[in-house]
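Key result, reporting period 2: structure in, sequence out.
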């Protein structure tokens, strides 16, 4: 079984990684107190496995932060974990271009040993041609509501190593297209203009969209809004028409709920359906919501419907 994790800022700050609930439910009973993380460069890292108080809750903790630091892992990088049995994982690391990184030189380490499948080492006068790098194709799997990781089933296909800025741009565009497909697959409604523009946006906005994907809970009806210059308005926010048709066509008002620091805040907002421009959140309540949360261009707002009668929308703001 394999899973795939996006390195959210919270994971780097906490210096530990929570294993996806679905994986932990199937394989957690087989894990010992230590796990081995094997990289393609042959290096093996020994990390602690901490069992949490909740059922099916497991973390990589002791040794995890050193693994991250020595491989220079940054925010929003991706990691694939293939479980090889006996608390052993084969790990690959991908940067923001979705290309696999050049790993640090392998060698012995205090926390692990070097893997060597052959009895001898051949020294060459010149290094061999590097292997073709791999990049994953992703299909998301719904995970637990309280899980900070994002789980994907992974397959791979050859990808030429990036050599210049043009290839960086291609990777950036591919990421945008991947995000649009993933949002549609998970039935997170977007405006039609948003779907067309996403591939051309900055990496910061795309990372905010990716963070919103990590927040999405179960099958709650959802839509996503990116604050742009034309809609960065303290008096209104457009809502995807298809979402309104399907879920709140008769709503005249909604409650916006935002949870932060263990505290819930609520705003009563008008829902208006206009002949031109489409449905929108508006009124004094929306203006207060906008200003209270200091929304700005590039911020991504994920709205999840908690209640369909007397509509309540849970809001998550991913700051660009």
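The corresponding designed sequence is given below.
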């Amino acid at each position: 079984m394999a899973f795939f994790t996006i390195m959210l800022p919270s994971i780097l700050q906490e210096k530990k990684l929570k294993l996806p609930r679905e994986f932990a439910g199937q394989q957690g009973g087989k894990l010992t107190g230590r796990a081995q993380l094997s990289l393609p460069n042959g290096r093996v890292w020994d990390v602690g496995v901490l069992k949490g108080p909740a059922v099916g809750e497991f973390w990589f903790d002791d040794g995890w932060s050193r693994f991250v630091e020595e491989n220079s892992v940054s925010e929003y990088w991706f990691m694939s974990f293939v479980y090889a049995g006996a608390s052993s994982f084969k790990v690959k690391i991908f940067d923001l271009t979705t290309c696999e990184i050049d790993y640090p030189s392998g060698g012995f380490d205090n926390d692990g040993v070097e893997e060597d499948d052959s009895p001898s080492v051949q020294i060459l006068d010149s290094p061999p041609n590097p292997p073709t790098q791999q990049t994953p194709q992703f299909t998301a799997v719904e995970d637990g509501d309280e899980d900070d990781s994002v789980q994907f089933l992974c397959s791979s296909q050859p990808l030429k190593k990036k050599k210049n800025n043009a290839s960086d741009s291609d990777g950036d565009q591919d990421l945008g297209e991947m995000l649009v497909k993933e949002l549609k697959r998970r039935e997170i409604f977007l405006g039609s203009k948003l779907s067309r523009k996403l591939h051309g946006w900055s990496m910061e906005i795309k990372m905010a969209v990716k963070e919103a994907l990590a927040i999405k809970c179960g099958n709650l009806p959802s839509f996503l809004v990116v604050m742009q210059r034309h809609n960065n308005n303290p008096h209104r926010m457009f809502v995807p028409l298809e979402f309104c048709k399907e879920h709140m066509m008769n709503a005249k008002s909604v409650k916006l709920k935002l949870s932060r620091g263990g505290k819930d805040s609520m705003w009563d907002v008008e829902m208006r359906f206009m002949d031109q421009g489409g449905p929108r959140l508006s009124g004094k309540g929306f203006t207060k919501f906008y200003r209270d949360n200091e929304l700005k261009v590039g911020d991504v707002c994920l709205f999840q419907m908690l209640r369909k009668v007397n509509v309540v929308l849970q809001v998550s703001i991913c700051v660009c």
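The longest strand covers residues 263-272. Helices lie at 9-14, 21-27, 64-70, 165-185, 192-197, 203-215, 241-247, 283-292. This case is discussed further under Risks and Mitigation.
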